[in-house]
Design a protein that fits this description.
By secondary structure, the protein is an alpha+beta fold. It is built from 3 helices and 12 strands.
């Protein structure tokens, strides 16, 4: 085990490199999505032209849509006012749960090593794409995404994504490059937010909305090319006729977002936990909101993760107790 301060500094340099890879990866994925979106918009314009040349009075439909937008905005104001403050009872239970689980006997990078050992890791750095609130200190991130549709929905597509994450370092694993180590990661989450999704599709319209919130865990060594993903879709509500709201509160180990990987010994491991808020809407009056930012007590806290590392065989792993 080397100097912990030096190893953390080295880990941060790896995170900078991985963040650059991550942003480039997301840009390429967005470019691919944009190709299909442009086709979708072109198809939508063709549908609106067909409707306008079929004797349908689109002016009356658009008047109705204006009223639908006003109704949606009234609902939105009510939802934000009612749901954004985290109920004190929920916060109190969450704080008690963190106290019980936080000091469970695990210590950061606890030597000596054996064939099966545990780590409790504090967050080291941040990863931010989209609206993630304050980038200040602390292990809490604040993802927020929101979209509002427009028009009849045929030539309309709006989406918004916030990917907010924390990096954790598992430096100086024992063994050599031919050692094979199995890693299992449990993120501990303390998250409090809310969502709202609405679409009111009707005759001659094409409306839809989706509100989705997902937790991702990614384990890698040096590069994202060899990373291992796991995901937990916490909430995904979507339809062409929907008006649904609700809170998203959870304080515990996220077993559904548990990550697994097999890595080489003798090398550090980088772990990224991402909270992703995604919203999509098409058509006026359609709306989607996922918010872990507004209201006291809101946010996605990842105070620590617990990692279990097991020796799968190979040279160089100490069996000292």
């Amino acid at each position: 085990m080397g100097n912990l301060k030096e190893e953390l500094q080295l880990a941060r340099s790896y995170f900078r490199k991985l963040d650059a890879e991550y942003i480039e990866e997301q840009k390429q994925a967005q470019a691919t999505r944009d190709i299909g979106r442009q086709r979708r918009l072109k198809d939508g314009h063709n549908w609106e032209e067909l409707l306008s040349t079929s004797g349908i009075d689109l002016a009356k439909i658009r008047e109705y849509e204006k009223a639908d937008v006003q109704r949606a905005e009234e609902i939105r104001r009510d939802v934000v006012e009612r749901l954004s403050p985290v109920p004190p009872s929920i916060l109190s239970r969450a704080q008690d749960a963190i106290k019980v689980n936080r000091f469970a006997g695990f210590a950061p990078w606890n030597p000596p090593f054996s064939s099966n050992w545990w780590f409790s890791l504090e967050w080291v750095d941040r990863s931010v794409i989209g609206d993630c609130g304050s980038a200040g200190g602390g292990s809490t991130i604040f993802p927020r995404a929101e979209t509002a549709g427009s028009g009849l929905g045929w030539a309309d597509a709006h989406d918004d994504t916030a990917q907010c994450g924390l990096w954790f370092a598992l430096p100086a694993l024992p063994g050599t490059s031919i050692s094979r180590l199995a890693i299992t990661v449990w993120p501990y989450l303390d998250m409090h937010g809310y969502y709202w999704v609405r679409a009111n599709d009707g005759l001659f319209t094409s409306k839809r909305a989706e509100a989705k919130f997902t937790i991702y865990t990614r384990i890698s060594q040096y590069t994202l090319d060899n990373s291992f993903w796991s995901s937990w879709v916490v909430r995904d509500r979507n339809s062409d006729n929907i008006d649904e709201e609700g809170r998203i509160d959870f304080t515990n180990y996220a077993n559904n977002a548990k990550g697994h990987a097999v890595v080489s010994g003798g090398e550090p491991v980088q772990i990224q936990v991402i909270a992703e808020a995604y919203c999509y809407s098409q058509g006026s009056g359609s709306h989607a909101l996922v918010d872990f930012q507004t209201g006291g007590g809101s946010g996605v806290g990842i105070p620590f993760i617990v990692a279990q590392v097991s020796d799968l065989g190979g040279a160089g792993v100490s069996s000292a107790q």
